[in-house]
Amino acid sequence: MGSRELAEPLSPGEATQSGARPADRHGLLKHSREFLDFFWDIAKPEQETRLAATEKLLEYLRGRPKGSEMKYALKRLITGLGVARETARPCYSLALAQLLQSFEDLPLCSILQQIQEKYDLCEVKKTMLRPALFANLFGVLALFQSGRLVKDQEALMKSVKLLQALAQYQNHLQEQPGKALLDVLSEVSVATLQEILPEVLKADLNAILSSPEQLELFLLAQQKVPSKLKKLVGSVNLFSDENVPRLVNVLKMAAASVKKDRKLPAIALDLLRLALKEDKFPRFWKEVVEQGLLKMQFWPASYLCFRLLGAALPLLTKEQLQLVLRGDVIRHYGEHVCTAKLPKQFKFAPEMEDYVGTFLEGCQDDPERQLAVLVAFSSVTNQGLPVAPTFWRVVRFLSPPALRGYVAWLQDMFLQPDLDSLVDFSTNNQKKAQDASLHVPERAVFRLRKWIIFRLVSIVDSLHLEMEEALTAQVARFCLFHAFFVTKKPTSQIPETKQPFSFPLESQAREAASSAFFSLLQTLSTQLKQATDQTRGGQPWTYHLVQFADLLLNHSHNVTTVTPFSAQQRQAWDRMLQTLKELEAHSSEARAAAFQHLLLLVGIHLLKSPAESCDLLGDIQTCIRKSLGEKPHRSRTKAIDPQEPPWVEVLVEILLALLAQPSHLMRQVARSVFGHICSQLTPRALQLILDVLNPETSEDEDHVVVTDDSDERRLKGAEDKSEDGEDNRSSESEEESEGEESEEEERDGDVDQGFREQLMTVLQAGKALGGEDSEDEEELGDEAMMALDQSLASLFAEQKLRVQARRDEKNKLQKEKALRRDFQIRVLDLVEVLVTKQPENALVLELLEPLLSIIRRSLRSSSSKQEQDFLHKTARIFTHHLCRARRYCHDLGERAEALHAQVERLVQQAGRQPDSATALYHFNASLYLLRVLKGSTAEGCMRETREKQKAGTDPSPVPTGPQAASCLDLNLVTRVYSSALSSFLTKRNSPLTVPMFLSLFSRHPVLCKRLLPILVQHVTGPVRPRHQACLLLQKALSLREVRSCFEDPEWKQLMGQVLAKVTENLRVLGEAQTKAEHQQALSSLELLNALFRTCKQEAPQVGKEGCQGGPQCHPEPYQQEAEEKGILARDKEAQETQVRGWHASRGWHTCSHRREPAPQHGQEEEEQDKGQGPGPGKRDACHQESSPWHPHSEPQHRCQIPKTAEEKPEAVPGEWSSQAPRGACGPKAASEGSSRKGGRGQITTVCAGTEKGKAVFGQQESQLASERGQEEESAAEEGGEALSTGTGHPRPLPPSCLRLQFFFFFFNRDLIGKLLLWRWLCHWGGCLWPPAQASTA
């Protein structure tokens, strides 16, 4: 690089003295653009970019440490210290520090002097004072971060003096210079600190206790140089009665300084360590923290106390922890947790959780301290309710002994609550409440027990993989026992009976324990994997809990259930156990495990609601026996009821009843069981499910009662919402005032005409409403007014009750509707299981219209989130699991006729929908049924079709070929979709869309073949049908599936018809004036472009399939035979004779592999002389490649169309060229031709005014075109053509140029455009039209 040899730039003074010109600014740019970009990247906000740029800068400077780049880099970095962008200053400071660290020969004093000279605080302007201050500060920090400042005594002293000078600018720098000075002095040696200490630390104790920086410097000196400090200041006791208030003020200033940073000031932690070291921690905590900072009613000071509490946990002993965790600080923390519930309010709880988690993780070897801290935080309660959340995840850091101790403490507090051991408090709003029931011990005990039972469940939920199996079983047994059983007499066989209650367990607490138990059961049954789900005996947790419940039931003298069992209910329980033993014999079957899970779950529910679960258990047992192939035990005298429903229907009803319960575990068990029985589903059983989803029938059903799941939603939160709402009354008062206006409006709306009449009657009876002579009447007396007031008060009281009753009824209806919708969402799980596990079941076809009805109804009324969820789930099942399923029903039986009618009905419904979104679902359903009909091979539909034809009722022919084995009636569905397509093309606001029919064409190309004539018919119609028809044709003709359904003659005929329609459109086109005309022209031209592209792709196939034995299309197989018969010419004269003969006969060979440009005159001789071209003999062998326009003596070839002498002038072969794909007429010929002629698919446009143009278009028209050369050039520019005026490789013409040239011809009416269009039509006519239509075209 030349920049390495450049001279160093001169300073302005040196340049003036030497007579040279000033420093060359452009010389800096000659260094390197890359070098200068380093400094831009250093200031970018991305850390990776900054670090990469700094590293590259250092590498760059290591190669030239003595060059001008080093001086420029230092100057640039020093300048960057004072830039206006605050985010760029630290970046330049860090880069300067790394530079000084890498190049230790750079003197620090010199760098510091440059910084002070650049940003002199005495000479800087007032507007630039702040950047100058920060530049000096960041300059000193750069020297310090380089690691060399503490080694350079002179630079250190200068830096200390500079920082002391900067400390005077408190308004701009605040406490940053003091912090920087403290950081610098903390790194220096003891000797250096002893030397510097008198200059930086004042000997006055008042000055030391005046700011956090001075106090922190004092603590640093006391730690490192205590003897020097004692000589300087003397003996100091910071925790004396005189100094405690000063310490409080210093800590308050420190708390205010970190208010935005939200971190613990270092001075507070240093004082804590000093108090622990001097054994004065109790005095420090009581007087400085609790009685000093905490009493200030200053939230930053309170947050400092909270952070100091969390940071002190690892430093304290067990006794000191008891002092801290039972004091005013943690009580104040609990009040903050209870009151800080607004969204914008700062919440300290997550930060405290981090402190506790860090402590528990760091003392794994001390379980006693772990247990003490966790118990202390769990004991901070608000009227009995702990402020710690039930799902406090710090328990994952507990060691196993601490976890066992914590679980034991929770169980003991549940049985015998010790309210005196709690750190209980009440908020200000709770203290102001006059309700005495809020302060009774029973309420606190209930709140505490409710929290404890959910806390136990959450521990198992979060630690189910790490917990010991015995501990998990202990928690599960504890919850089960206290939820459903009561101790009558203690026994040693049941440890749970030995634990008495200090406060009786009320019914509300048992309900909470019941809810917590089922939540625990869900965790043990669903969230655990199969490997961890099983206990040591190989049975699931639910089975062992049932065995424990049976043990309790058998000890009736010691234990009884909360709801005593009747004899029938006890028999149901015993039969359930017997059925479980029978299922063990079928343990290898998958459905046996599902039945076992269902039976166990319903059996446990027998403890909760015996009356409801008793009959359910009997029905389940009967269904299980029948499903496993066993006959149920019947009495000999009792006859079998012929009207008895199948067991599948009974089990489906049971599953629907279980889904009505607000239990996620029930939902998953029902889904699992239904997956095993859906293969034996009956139409009646499916109808039971559909009746729930159908609102016309499900709203009137009473056999399924949907229960409220509000209790289930409260499982995760143990706080009492209604009671805690008192803490937020002050914050919610504004919302209540805003809602008063809406309530008044509702009251006005609730006033009916009857109330108005009653009011008028009361007023008239009290003579409050006077007539025309009311002015002469006397006013009412006091008694009359009092009577009127009482009448009005009673009337409005009655009206208020009526309004409230109407509101309650409305709310009840809305709640019932929400519960019903939630139930329907759960029932959709069964539908999803059916369509995913049994897609080949014929009953799946019965789901189409019910699901469409749900979608159609939900799209009209999907306003709430619940309705949206219902719609999305239904649409997902319908679209992804049903219509797009890879497997479907293949055995329709006698359903074929009904399915054809359903297809017609669905297509008609799609056309009548108000929007395209709804129509798409119906159209996709019809396509799904078409696939089912097409793939079904039922013999019944074919037999039925033949019987109809014999009877004369069905005139349609019997399908043959691939359609013969299908149930699809092609004639019927053609009529259906023809009507839909015609409606789409003619109806203005049709909900059908183009993608719907394209999907139909691609999936069913045979049907598309029958619908294409309708599209061709509408190509010349009005604007909108024409545009839609052209678009559909353009897409349909490019589909391979559609092309495979046509024979070659049929395809050519279709192409000819489409081209004739497009030509008819193009003939009537004029200059487009409106948007509709532009759209009309554009659609026709795009269709024409698609036709050309399709024909171009089809041309090699025509040559390959259509040429039967012609040597011109198969040169290699027929080369030897042609040489023997003398067909191929062997010299140049014979070749020219053949070409002239071709000109005379005007034969056109349209195979794309034959349209190869012919070599120019004399080109072969030149190639042969150079040794590049083939010889005479070899040229004959390659004649089919070098002479593509080979004449045909006999015009029997299907690609050969003879021309008459009256047609347009002949064209020179080779002006239109298109190379065939490899393999069309021999891979060798194709590859060689492609390599010599410049690629495949090339078309060259010839200018009519050139020499080639004369040969192409004739002398007369060429001369006429030459006279209009200017118009020709402008036309060529508008068309975007590449005019070739000489020899060489032809230039390719993209397909878009065809469209532009047609625009050029029809809108400019130029002669060249007419000639070009004629050439294109003649060229492509051989592939598009039969010979009989060529001359007409």
Automatic annotation (TrEMBL):
Biased composition (Acidic residues): 733-751, 1270-1280
Broad class of the protein's primary localization: nucleus
The keyword Nucleus appears for this protein: yes
Keywords from the named record: Nucleus
Annotated TM spans: none
Family per record: Belongs to the MYBBP1A family.
Name of this chain's protein: MYB binding protein 1a
Lineage: Eukaryota, Metazoa, Chordata, Craniata, Vertebrata
Gene that this sequence comes from: MYBBP1A
